Structure formats: C-alpha cells, structure tokens
Automatic annotation (TrEMBL):
Keyword Acetylation: no
Protein name per the record: LLM class flavin-dependent oxidoreductase
Keyword entries, A-Z: Oxidoreductase
InterPro entries, per database record: F420-G6PD/mer, Luciferase-like_dom, Luciferase-like_sf
Organism the protein comes from: Actinoplanes aureus
Domain Luciferase-like, residue spans: 19-227
SUPFAM superfamilies, per the entry: Bacterial luciferase-like
UniProt GO molecular function: oxidoreductase activity, acting on paired donors, with incorporation or reduction of molecular oxygen
Domain of life: Bacteria
Pfam families associated with the record: Bac_luciferase (PF00296)
Length: 309
C-alpha cells in the first residue's frame, strides 16, 4: 500500500494560510516518504476552502518525484475545457506526474455558484470526461454531446503522452462503478462513504464491469481518498475529533469509526489493513489538525503496523 498526503486546504480553526505553509507541508511529506500529494475541489464549504488546482500548482517545485493528484476535481463545475487546460499545464510543469481524478461533486452549492442544475450532474459528468479526453489529446476523436462539444486537443499538450491518467471518483454505486469501468483509468473510492467491506464488494462488481468493457481488471488501480486522519489516544480526544468530523460530514461518529483514521495507531493500522485486503492500493491521508505532526506520527506509528497484526 502506498500513501499520499492531502494538502491542508480547509481552514478548520480560522488561522488561514500563510505564504510558505503549503510548501513546508510538502517538504515534510516528501522527506517522510509519501508517494504523492493530492488536492480536491469545492467552491464553497462549511469552512473556508483553498482552491485545489492553484494550491497543487504552487507546490510543484517542492514535490520532488512525488505524483500529483486531484482527488477529485470537478469538470462539470469548472467546465471541461478550463479543467483540461489547467491539467495540461500541471502535467507539463511537473514533468508528467499528474493523475487527474474527476467526479461530479456532492455539493449543490457548488453547482448553484456555477449556474448549473445539480440534478444534471451525472449526464454532464459522462460528457465532460469524454470532452476531457479529446482536449487532452488521449486519442479520442472530436466529441459532440448534449452539454459539451470538443473539436480537437488543446495546446500545449500535456507532458504525459496521451494525457494524464483519468481516475473517476465514485462512492461505489452500480451506476458509478459502470462509469468508472467505461470511462476511467482507475477508481477513487471515498473512505468516509465506503467501509472496507463495501469496498471489497464494489471491487467485485467493478471487476465484472471492467471485463464487460474489455479492460484488464488486474491492471486497474484503486485508491482511497478523503481519508480523514488524526492519530491520537482512545479517550475523549478521539471522540471529540470523531464528533466534530461527523458534524462536518453529516455522518454519525459510529459510522466513521471504522472508516477513517482517527484514534490509536493500532486501530488506524487495522483499518488500513482492512482496506488493503479489500483491494485498495493507495490511500490519501488528510490530517484534521496539526498537519506536520500528523504526517510524521502516521508514518512513524501507523505504517509499520500495517504489514503485521
């Protein structure tokens, strides 16, 4: 199992961001051996949310050989042409290290701000992904749909031949997994929305969908995003973090307990082993607070326990 570090894009405590904060965070992640840096998309949230694409671009020079990933970006909200342009630039300046994760988004407020109908997100997403492939020069022909039309690839082309791999986010629904198999190069699952057991069952269904689509199930990657993380004790500190997280996500703390990495190192490692057994190859951890300390504690106290009971 590989581990990525999600950029601290949410202002949980009202402190905001100072110049250099993101770069220092990436320095810590790189020095600790994280494999990737990720960011995702919201226009509006319960807390202030730093723009993911801009944040990711700002740390390219500090990321070394780590991959860059969006987990996920919103091609419907941003528009497929604008997202393709930004993705190509990120791929160029990073030397071809971008994985472009996309999804519909779960916030009606984002769609309202973009002047779009939230109920149209699914058909729009299908078309937007096809348009992205044309814009990024991935061998797709000109695309004409109901919502989007893409006549040809945009220039300059991405550094990665054929464009960066496009992974598709899904919480594991039948329709979502069919979309992943049909249009994607990998699956981005959501930790707080899918237990290890649900991921394992979804992997079986995804394998069948990949076979129907004529794709190799063994070479199809599966990663886990929105893995909220805070390594702490088992007492009140843990319960307070879970309760606050539950309020933010509109989820019961008991539902989150076996899905996210909040609690003692041994419990976090057990959760990760369950996801590993379910077929997850990479996890993007997202510290809820004390980001530098949590990056270190996770690598020092949790990761060594994942490979053994």
């Amino acid at each position: 199992m590989r581990f990525g570090a999600h950029l601290p894009l949410i202002d949980f405590d009202g402190r905001g961001w100072r110049p250099g904060d993101l770069g220092a965070y990436v320095d810590t992640a790189r020095q600790l051996g994280y494999a990737s840096i990720s960011a995702n998309d919201h226009l509006e949230f319960q807390h202030p949310w730093l723009d993911g694409l801009v944040a990711l671009a700002s740390v390219v020079e500090r990321s070394g050989e780590m991959r860059l990933a969006t987990t996920v970006s919103l091609p419907v909200v941003r528009g497929p042409a604008a997202l393709a342009k930004a993705a190509a630039a990120l791929d160029i300046v990073s030397g071809g290290r971008l994985t472009l994760g996309v999804g519909p988004g779960s916030s009606a407020r984002d769609y309202a701000l973009a002047g779009l109908d939230f109920d149209e997100r699914w058909p729009r997403l299908d078309e937007a992904i096809r348009a992205l492939r044309t814009y990024l020069g991935s061998g797709a022909s000109a695309y004409q749909g109901r919502f989007y039309a893409a006549a040809s690839a945009l220039r300059p082309a991405p550094a990665c031949p054929g464009g960066p791999p496009i992974w598709i986010g899904s919480w594991g629904s039948e329709a979502g997994l069919r979309r992943v198999a049909r249009l994607g190069d990998g699956w981005l699952a959501s930790a707080y929305n899918a237990s290890p057991g649900q991921v394992a069952a979804a992997r079986v269904r995804l394998g069948a969908a990949l076979e129907r689509a004529g794709k190799d199930r063994d070479g199809f990657g599966c990663a886990l995003a929105t893995m909220w993380t805070y390594v702490t004790g088992s007492g009140p500190a843990r319960e307070a973090r879970l309760s606050a997280l539950g309020r933010m996500l509109n989820r019961a703390p008991d539902q989150l307990r076996q899905r996210v990495l909040v609690g003692p190192a041994a419990d976090c490692a057990a959760t990760l082993r369950a996801y590993l057994d379910a077929g997850i190859g990479e996890v993007f951890i997202w510290p809820l607070a004390d980001p530098h300390d949590q990056l270190e504690r996770f690598m020092r106290d949790v990761v060594p326990l994942v490979a053994r009971p």
